[in-house]
Q: What sequence folds into this?
């Protein structure tokens, strides 16, 4: 199955658009494991087990593992995801952005070492920074497009006078992802839930590519507005999938021994809220 096949299958199977982001911070762990970086796998594995039937995807953020020398725990965690929820795709949030042989090594890291189904990338260096990832058959890549941070305006909201129609930079990236760059049919875009009007604009420019949407939950993005702006269907079937990410609100729903059960409760509430918005 390609990444998009897996994404659509997980959406149907779990009736979900919710992605749980795995950003483990040992300082925020429950008391029994608080501050212990060797427990990253244990913490995340419990979250995975408690929410496996509620998600469309998993999104481990590589920095939270690498900062604690826990890359081996990330490998183990992805293998655990495969056992617990084999049909749910894994998106490695790495935001890589290099060219040539370096990009090839980053692609090998994402898809061979960690076994991810998709990866997040920065498109700033152009198509040759994306191409090495697209050589992996059926693997996905989400390009940073209109991100949720205020500083995104510094570049993403600038007009390109050299491009016909003078689009904003993020609009141009969306057009490239919908069109000439999407050589393996598995490209997607990252757009922040804190900008629903921009999500709608991206969707108009890129009507079929999947959108990875962070910012719901602790960052304050409106779930209903996000779904209205980004999700599209025809005849009851999703034509333009969205992957709405929540990390901290799920992971740290409780500081007690019941953290996994609390994570499940928040994940279910968020999943149901998104589905209600879909109608």
A:
């Amino acid at each position: 199955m390609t990444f998009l096949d897996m994404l659509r299958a997980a959406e149907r199977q779990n009736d979900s658009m919710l992605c749980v982001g795995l950003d483990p911070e040992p300082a925020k762990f429950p008391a029994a494991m608080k501050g212990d970086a060797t427990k990253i796998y244990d913490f995340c594995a419990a979250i995975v087990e408690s929410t496996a039937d509620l998600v469309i995807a998993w999104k481990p953020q590589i920095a939270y593992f690498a900062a604690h020398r826990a890359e081996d725990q990330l490998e183990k965690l992805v293998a655990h995801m495969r056992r617990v929820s084999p049909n749910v795709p894994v998106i490695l949030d790495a935001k890589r952005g290099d060219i040539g042989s370096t990009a090839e090594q980053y692609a090998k890291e994402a898809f061979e070492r960690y076994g991810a189904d998709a990866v997040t990338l920065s498109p700033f260096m152009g198509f040759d920074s994306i191409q090495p990832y697209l050589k992996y058959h059926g693997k996905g890549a989400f390009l940073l497009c209109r991100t949720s941070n205020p500083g995104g305006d510094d570049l993403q909201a600038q007009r390109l006078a050299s491009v016909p129609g003078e689009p904003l930079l993020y609009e141009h990236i969306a057009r490239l992802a919908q069109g000439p760059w999407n050589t393996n049919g598995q490209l997607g875009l990252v757009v922040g839930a804190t900008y629903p009007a921009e999500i709608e604009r991206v969707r108009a420019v890129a009507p079929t590519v999947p959108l990875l949407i962070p910012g719901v939950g602790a960052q304050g993005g409106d779930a209903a507005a996000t779904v209205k702006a980004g999700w599209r269907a025809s005849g009851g079937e999703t034509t333009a999938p969205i992957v709405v990410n929540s990390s901290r609100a799920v992971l740290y729903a409780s500081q007690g021994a019941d953290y996994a059960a609390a994570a499940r409760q928040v994940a279910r509430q968020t999943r149901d809220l998104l589905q209600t918005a879909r109608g």
User: Anything to note?
Assistant: Residues 3-278 form a domain with the TIM Barrel fold (CATH 3.20.20.70). The chain has one domain: 3-278.
